[in-house]
């Protein structure tokens, strides 16, 4: 596609930021809009596998991210009640196989480094998309602050409650999965003397707790859980929670898990949502990626990874396929992404990933830059 095109990306989350950074590097005129008044450092952790780090390499930030992150050698699954090991799967212990690191990192830190790969002149905060009008030549955007803009191509990377998606396909509430997740941060000094694994998921029959370090110095530890819940109030994105509520939910778990709960600060509780598979990923000059397109339960730690892979594949299709027809580019993008994103969505929703020893190379060994676009 012509590099002179003006590309609008709505949503400066992990997927939208990746798309903007890669488009900028490819020479497009790109604008990244987000509803937030300024960058906000979400206090949570995130795992980014080699499949993502190969894309961070293209953004020129693989090393700066790895320099602050932890690089766990193994993923371990443990039985909640007696601590028995259910699996022990090499991550960085098998680095040569994946040709990139597996990192666990503070999500805000990762996001900030990624935003640093986008020219600040191309980023507009405080721009909440309210409406769009797609026409033959491009898309007119209207924002809540009363301003408007005109772009040739619009990328909807605006997450679970995507406005772009709603304008493209009609409004539809996301589906509450019947699961919630607790998140908690722990100063690692509070766990001194305990046998804390680097990247461990604790499992019982109907819930789990994932634990890992957030930094290379191993000063911050983190947990995120998955637990059944009957309902969640519509429109509430998270609520504060308590040690008592978590102890009740994880009664009977190993003393180590109970020590994590005791040591946690700022415990929060989040709903887990999904959506039915989308019939279309693009229309005219508008295309979707990430959670706007295929949200999933986070039990495989690959939701952001799929958004980032989508962004990389979309930019490949826009730069490597010789056409100026958006439909040709976007259809190639959908063709190369739908199978993989759907498979990951399915496994993630089933919550079986790495519970027992299995080969994770179809996920971590994937290189979006190795895909033959003409296949
Ligand atoms: P988002 O990150 O949701 O970004 C959307 C952006 O759009 C936001 O910045 C928002 O402000 C903006 N926006 C929304 N509406 C508008 C509008 N109208 N106008 C302008 N801007 C707008 N994934 C992993 O890969 N690894 C993990 O370890 C992991 N752990 C997780 C743990 C939990 C508890 C949860 C809930 C999810 C986890 N995920 C993980 C999944 C991951 O968070 C999401 O899949 C990922 O954030 C999706 O990225 P995105 O860029 O598509 O959307």
Describe this structure in words.
With 375 residues, this protein is of the alpha/beta class. The protein has helices at residues 14-25, 50-58, 62-68, 95-98, 107-115, 163-169, 243-249, 255-263, 303-320, 326-350, 361-364; strands spanning 6-10, 29-34, 45-48, 74-79, 85-90, 103-106, 123-125, 129-134, 139-143, 148-151, 153-156, 175-187, 199-203, 208-213, 220-228, 239-240, 265-274, 282-283, 286-288. An 8-stranded mixed beta sheet has the order 5-4-13-14-15-12-17-16, with helices on one face. The protein has a 6-stranded mixed beta sheet with strand order 7-2-1-11-19-18, with helices on both faces. α1 (14-25) packs parallel to α9 and α9 (303-320) runs antiparallel to α10. The longest helix is centred in the C-terminal third of the chain and has 25 residues, at 326-350. The protein is globular and about 60 Å long. The chain starts with 5 loop residues before the first strand and ends in an 11-residue tail after the last helix. The mean pLDDT is 96. Residues 10-16, 33-36, 46-47, 127-129, 157-159, 163, 181, 183, 224, 270, 290-292, 298, 301-305, 307 line the site of flavin-adenine dinucleotide. It is an enzyme of class 1 (oxidoreductase). GO terms for molecular function: 6-hydroxynicotinate 3-monooxygenase activity; FAD binding. InterPro entries: FAD-bd, FAD-dep_Monooxygenase_BioMet, FAD/NAD-bd_sf. Its EC number is 1.14.13.114. It comes from Komagataeibacter europaeus (Gluconacetobacter europaeus).
């Amino acid at each position: 596609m012509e590099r002179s095109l003006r590309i609008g990306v709505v949503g400066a989350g992990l997927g939208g930021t990746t798309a903007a950074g890669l488009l900028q590097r490819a020479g497009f005129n790109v604008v990244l809009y987000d509803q937030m008044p300024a960058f906000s450092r979400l206090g949570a952790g995130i795992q980014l596998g080699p499949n993502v780090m190969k894309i961070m390499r293209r953004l020129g930030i693989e090393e700066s991210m790895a320099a602050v992150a932890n690089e766990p050698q193994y993923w371990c699954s443990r039985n909640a009640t007696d601590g028995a090991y259910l699996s022990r799967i090499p991550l960085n212990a098998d680095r040569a196989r994946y040709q990139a690191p597996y990192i666990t990192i503070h999500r805000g830190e990762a996001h900030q480094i990624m935003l640093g790969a986008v020219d600040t002149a191309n980023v507009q905060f405080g721009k909440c998309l309210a409406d769009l009008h797609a026409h033959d030549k491009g898309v007119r955007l209207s924002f809540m602050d009363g301003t408007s803009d005109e772009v040739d191509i619009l990328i909807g990377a605006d997450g679970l409650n995507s406005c772009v998606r709603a304008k493209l396909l009609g409004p539809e509430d996301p589906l509450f999965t019947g699961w919630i997740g607790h998140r908690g941060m722990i100063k690692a000094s509070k766990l001194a003397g305990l046998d804390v694994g680097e990247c461990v998921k604790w499992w019982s029959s109907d819930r789990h707790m994932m634990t890992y370090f957030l930094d290379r110095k191993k000063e911050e530890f983190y947990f995120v859980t998955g637990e059944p819940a009957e309902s969640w109030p519509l429109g509430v994105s998270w609520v504060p929670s308590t040690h008592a509520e978590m102890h009740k939910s994880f009664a009977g778990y190993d003393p180590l898990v109970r020590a994590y709960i005791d040591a946690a600060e700022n415990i929060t509780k989040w709903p887990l949502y999904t959506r039915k598979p989308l019939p279309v990923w693009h229309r005219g000059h508008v295309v979707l990626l990430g959670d706007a397109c295929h949200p999933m339960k986070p039990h495989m730690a690959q939701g952001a990874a799929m958004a980032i892979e989508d962004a990389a594949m979309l930019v490949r299709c826009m730069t490597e396929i010789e056409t100026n027809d958006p439909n040709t580019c976007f259809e190639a993008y959908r063709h190369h992404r739908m199978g993989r994103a759907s498979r990951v969505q399915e496994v993630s929703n089933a919550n079986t990933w790495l519970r027992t020893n299995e080969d994770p190379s179809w996920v971590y060994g994937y290189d979006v830059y190795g895909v033959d676009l003409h296949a």
